[in-house]
Amino acid sequence: MKLSARQICFFLAAVAPAGKLVFMPSQLVAQTANDLLLPVAMQILAQSALVFAVLLLARNGRTVYGMLSDMVGGFFAKAACVLFAAFLLFAAFVPLVEQKILVQSIFYDTLPSYVAFAPFFLFAAYLCAKPLASLGRVWDMLAPLFLVGILGVLLLSVGNADFGALLPVGAAGAGGFGRGVAYTAGWFFDAALLLPLVGKFPYRKGLAWKGALCYLGGGILLLFFLAVYYGIFAEIAVTQLFAFAHMSKYFSGITAMGRIDYLFIFAIAFVMAFYTAMPVQAAVDALTDAFGHRRVLAPTLSTAFNAALLALMLAFNFVPSATVSAITQRAFWIFPVFAAGAPLLLLALSPVLNKRRERHAR
Predict the structure, then answer these.
(1) DSSP 3-state assignment of 362?
(2) What is the C-alpha to C-alpha distance for residues 197 and 33, in angstroms, rounded to an integer?
């Protein structure tokens, strides 16, 4: 099953931003205060460049494993895929914690049992057993759903925002900016999620530029969301973990019409559920590309990975904030090593692959 260029662009513009709306805004404010837009703008520009690099790799028409095996041999290519899959599973933990806390805090009137989130892993185990390329039709549905949700929330919220709270620019200094960039790396690895898709969609002329521009477009929407978020909450923004679910309740019409904003909140949360499962699905795809036997290996790996993640979620149930901080603040360096290092290394080695192909052709 092949993806289309349209579906790739839908993911980059209107699915990827959904994974950055829960813990990231408040953690960012804790480091940068009113300068929260600058580190995110830097991350968006960097990820757009990396998306461009990944989509350029698709010109070869080979999967990442296929390219690596031609360059360094099958054994080292398999080892690289295992290492990359381990990174994706590590990266999956923060979205899972966010989704769990979001569901328990927003969608229940009373605190539910800590196993109430467990059914999500049944959904994830089914989804992750499917080829990553099968998500194309899903993205066709999720992209407009997310846009309706986020634009609805912003429409109800923007009237209450004081954008003067974002001034003066640069108040956090270079140190705050550096920490903001470093500590948000755990949410910006979308280019890495595209790597297992390389070779599974036809490259069309200009797709790399279109993909990068679509990611920039989604990034601009995310920046506007963050500006409205800080404009509403200002000094107390650091305490607002689920900003998108609280911003719109201050709309004056809510008292007369009820919480109509929940329609938009549910739409965003629905998109988040698919995005949360995507790193695990990408890990399964990377390993099945390397080792084959997809019909047997994919459901086996999906079940095993989701069971292991469920066990970890239960083990760290009472320390979610400490867990997220450990991953995004102490281990933040892991994300650029893989999310930026892998695409750039493959792009740098692609001329070697092309030369080898020319020699074989002769």
Answers:
(1) coil
(2) 37
Q: Is the pLDDT of residue 329 over 80?
A: yes
CA torsion, ordered 332, 337, 342, 343, to nearest 10 deg? 70
Within 10 angstroms of residue 281's Cβ, the number of other Cβ atoms is 26
Neighbouring C-alpha atoms within 13 Å toward the C-beta of 231: 18
Residue in the structure block whose two tokens are 């997310």: 146
Share of the chain above pLDDT 70, in %: 94
Cα 355 off chain centre by: 34
Question: Measured between alpha carbons, how far is 191 from 177 in angstroms, rounded to an integer?
Answer: 22
Chain-centre distance of CA 75, in angstroms? 30
Band of residue 145 on the pLDDT scale cut at 50, 70, 90:
very high
Task: At 78, list the tokens.
Answer: 């398999």
Burial class (CB in 10 A: 0-12, 13-18, 19+), 111: exposed
Amino acid, res. 208? A
Mean pLDDT of all residues in 314-323: 84
Helix (H) or strand (E) holding 361: helix 341-361
Q: Which two tokens stand for residue 54?
A: 């990944």
Q: Within a 10 A sphere around the Cβ of 187, how many other Cβ atoms?
A: 24
| Sequential DSSP letters for 169-206 | TTTTHHHHHHHHHHHTGGG--HHHHHGGGTTSS---TT
For the chain, first and last CA: distance in Å? 32
What is the C-alpha to C-alpha distance for residues 62 and 192, in angstroms, rounded to an integer? Answer: 16
The three-point CA angle 231-232-237 to 5° equals 90
CA distances (Å), origin 129, targets 4, 81, 118, 133, 235: 21, 17, 18, 12, 44
Cα–Cα distance between 288 and 85 in angstroms, integer? 10
Q: Report the C-alpha gap between 180 and 184 in whole angstroms.
A: 6
How confident is residue 131, by pLDDT bands cut at 50, 70 and 90? confident
Does pLDDT of 108 surpass 80?
A: no
CA distance 78 to 293: 14
Read off the pTM.
Answer: 0.93
pLDDT by residue (tens digit) across 2-38?
788 899 999 999 999 999 999 999 999 999 989 999 9
- Average the pLDDT over 245-265 and give the result: 81
